[in-house]
Every structure is written in C-alpha cells, then in structure tokens.
Design brief:
With about 230 residues, the protein is mostly beta strands. The protein has one helix spanning about 1-30; strands at about 40-50, 55-65, 70-80, 95-115, 115-125, 135-140, 155-160, 160-165, 180-185, 195-200, 200, 220-230. It folds into 3 domains: about 1-30; about 40-160 and about 205-230; about 165-200, no CATH class. Helices cover about 15% and strands about 40% of the residues. The strands form 3 sheets. An 8-stranded antiparallel beta sheet has the order 7-6-5-4-3-2-1-12, with no helix packed on it. About 20% of the residues are buried.
Length: about 230
C-alpha cells in the first residue's frame, strides 16, 4: 500500500511540475516582446571624381517606421565653384575654391528598398551660409565591397526650397480655377511611372523620386564602406 501511494504521489508531483514548467514557458513566450530590426543606413567614406579633389561623406540614419528618420550627414573636402548663375535667379553666389567646404544636414526622412536607401534632410551648418536651409538628398547602394566602381555607390545633391506660383488650368474650360492644393506629376513616356504629388511648396524629400530613378556618381578612387539595413 505504501509503495502504491508513493508511486501515485510521485506521479502527481511530476505532472504538477511539468504543468508549471509548461505554463512558465508559455507565459514567457507570450510576454516576451517581439523585436523587429528598424531600417537603418550608415557609412563613412572618402572619394575623388574626375576633378581629382578628395572629399568625404559621413552619415548615419535610423528610420521611425513611418517614412521619417533621424540622423546626420556631413560633407567635407575641397570644392571649386564656377563663376556662374546656376539657379537662374540673378545671384551668382560664391565663386572660386574652398580648401575645406563643410556641410552638415539633419536627416528627417528615409526610404529603403533592398540594398538602396535615400535620405533627405535640411542643411543646418555650412562653411558657405548660402547652403543653410537648403534641402539635401543622399542616395546610397550597399554592394558589400566598399567604395569603388563596382562596389558601394552613392549620389547626393543640394536643392533650394521652391514655391510654385503658377496655377495650371484647363484652357478649354473657362470655369476651371485650376488646382488648389496638389496634383500628380508623371512621366508621359513611362506607363509604370506612379507619379509624385506636387504642392505649392515643393519640398524635396525621400519620397520625391523613385529609388530606381537615381544615377550614381562615377568614382575614380575611393575608400570606405556603406551599410543599408532594410
């Protein structure tokens, strides 16, 4: 009788312990937060183009999951500025050469597709005050081989804020008051072009152009690395 009681008791204890262990595992799995890798892109590299001037770019961006992002881009190095009015606004700006042009931009948006990323932001500091307040776009492609002709690639540009003052309207309709807020601009020669939304104040950002539409610069020499985390 005592042996039978001992076996029943041990079996019951084993069942209770197993149940508690299983419940603890189940509870642990249910309460453990799900971790997801956030979109991110970073890099630090030096490069030279056909002009032979060696420049550097450093950047780090982290996406917030809604198209916005935070981070910083820094451009530095010698630059030459021709004596011409490239914007057509009657102001030529600085002309000549700077041995170390510094431009710092705060990132406010990022879009990532596979191994490509485009970051947008606003210039907050620069050796040339004309650049402060301008928009910047930096596009990168992570090929895992460092900066080279067949390795990691990049392109970037500075853009002045544009305010659209003209109002498009239908010339055949006298009562057409034209667009009031936005319209969609598309490439008529491309059926797959989804178009971009244009407003009176056209602020260039990471959504302004498809990632596939950017051309990368032709680097003659470079060193460094670019990383994109989709």
């Amino acid at each position: 009788m005592s042996q039978v009681s001992f076996i029943k008791s041990s079996t019951m204890k084993n069942l209770i312990c197993a149940s508690i262990f299983a419940l603890a595992l189940l509870t642990g799995f249910q309460t453990s937060p799900k971790t997801a890798l956030a979109q991110a892109s970073e890099g630090s590299f030096r490069y030279s183009l056909e002009d032979g001037l060696t420049k550097a770019i450093e950047f780090a961006a982290r996406g917030n999951g809604d198209g916005t992002a935070s981070g910083r881009i820094t451009f530095s190095g010698p630059s030459e500025f021709p004596d011409q009015d490239v914007d057509g606004d009657g102001t030529g700006g600085f002309s000549g050469r700077l041995e170390d042009l510094q431009i710092t931009a705060e990132i406010d948006g990022m879009a990532v597709e596979r191994n490509r990323a485009v970051m947008s932001g606003v210039v907050t500091g620069s050796t040339l005050s004309d650049y402060i307040g301008q928009r910047v776009l930096l596009v990168v492609e992570d090929n895992g081989d460092g900066i080279a002709r067949e390795g990691d690639k990049f392109s970037w540009g500075l853009y002045k804020p544009q305010e659209i003052s003209w109002i498009p309207s239908d010339a055949d309709l006298r009562e057409d008051n034209g667009w009031s807020m936005t319209w969609i601009a598309t490439d008529a020669d491309r059926r797959d072009d989804e178009g971009i939304q244009i407003t009176r104040e056209w602020v260039r950002n990471c959504q302004s152009f498809p990632l596939s539409s950017y051309d990368f610069v032709d680097v003659t020499d470079g060193e460094g690395n670019i990383q994109v985390q989709p």
